[in-house]
């Protein structure tokens, strides 16, 4: 199978590409614009594989997408390219409208044009898997409910609203044009190679540098944490076994308050780091409560019963083992994050002519 992955230089995309190359026989075409979130350093382990190719392109660029479909003739698309950080969507929603909505539209149209050109059996086998988020369902504040596949959409942030819109576009292309689409909605991911603007790597790297650990509001917000390799495996399972037109929620079955996540990170760092930054006895002392995120959702939690019952997927990593592995990875891979922190990872991108 030849899979065109969009956003394969990002956090989840690169985990998916590494999984597809190491654990399957698939060929992968990684289409990525290399925004600030795209990092080719995360793909070093696969870059020499004869089953892997990188294409620098903006998914909003329809002619470029048409060319890529014509050149590579994929059997499937796994669509992950997006602007993904809620705080950035509050500071500047424009890129989110562009990539998450216009980019998904351009990708769908390029896929549809190509799909229409296929013979009957290739058309039937083709899949467009759209990777989305649990944030489309809104806030589960003050109740014990879980997000199910039929939970009504109620997005809070510009990021969540654009992802909700992209989900609707994908389902419309399935219903109206019969493009064989699948949608997944997943909870918070964590693990190696995550850009340090997101909670867990932000806290690990700040702690290692002796900087404050900023918790928004009172830190009691709840997220459902999933180890990224479990997500990659789930996506491939949905691509292979999922029913066309269906949605699958993917979650970690790991609800945690932010404050508890950060205290766990501090405790593990206390154990792992012998030479602490000067003046620090325990990393917990770095926790600082800061102004809350506007429109901050209190709680997300996924009901992952459908993907378990129908496709036999469930997470293998629990939060304690996953966070220990993640912290160990950041400690052992300082060159990766140092290049992110000092900005030198972007030089590779500029060398490849990105417009960003
Ligand atoms: P990320 O921000 O780490 O990576 C996004 C990737 O998309 C980057 O490589 C970036 O260069 C690329 N990209 C952005 N705009 C592009 C464009 N116009 N054209 C081509 N490439 C472009 O994101 P992530 O955390 O890996 O998330 C991947 C997908 O999974 C997103 O669609 C996100 O909404 C979804 N998701 C993320 C999480 C999570 O916890 N991170 C959870 C559920 C769903
Ligand atoms: O739920 C899935 C979503 O999870 C994905 O769709 C998004 O792409 C991904 O970014 C993530 O969104 P969140 O907003 O939940 O993730 P973030 O890591 O930004 O924040 C997690 C929680 O931690 C949230 O309640 C805000 C809080 N937070 C975050 C940061 C960066 C802090 O308290 N302090 C921080 O410095």
From the structure above, extract its key features.
356 residues; alpha/beta; Rossmann fold; seven-stranded parallel sheet; two-stranded parallel sheet; 13 helices; 13 strands; 43% helix; binds nicotinamide-adenine-dinucleotide; binds 2'deoxy-thymidine-5'-diphospho-alpha-D-glucose
Characterize the structure shown:
The structure is a single chain. By secondary structure, the protein is of the alpha/beta class. The protein has a single domain (2-350), classed as NAD(P)-binding Rossmann-like Domain (Rossmann fold), CATH 3.40.50. Helix content is 43%, strand content 15%. Helix 6 links the parallel strand 5 (127-133) and strand 6. Helix 2 (62-72) runs parallel beside helix 4 and helix 7 (199-208) packs parallel to helix 9. It is globular. The model has no long low-confidence stretch (mean pLDDT 96). The structure holds nicotinamide-adenine-dinucleotide and 2'deoxy-thymidine-5'-diphospho-alpha-D-glucose. Nicotinamide-adenine-dinucleotide binds next to helix 1, helix 4 and strand 5.
Note the total helix count: 13
Q: Any idea what the shape is? A: globular
- Return the average pLDDT rounded to an integer: 96
CATH level-3 fold name: Rossmann fold
Task: State the separation between the terminal residues, measured CA to CA.
Answer: 31 Å
Strand content: 15-25%
Secondary structure tally: strands? 13
Uncertain stretches of 5 or more adjacent residues: none
Domain module tally: 1
What composes the largest sheet?
7 strands, parallel
H and E string: EHEEHEHHHEHEEHEEEHEEHEHHHH
- Structural class of the secondary structure composition? alpha/beta
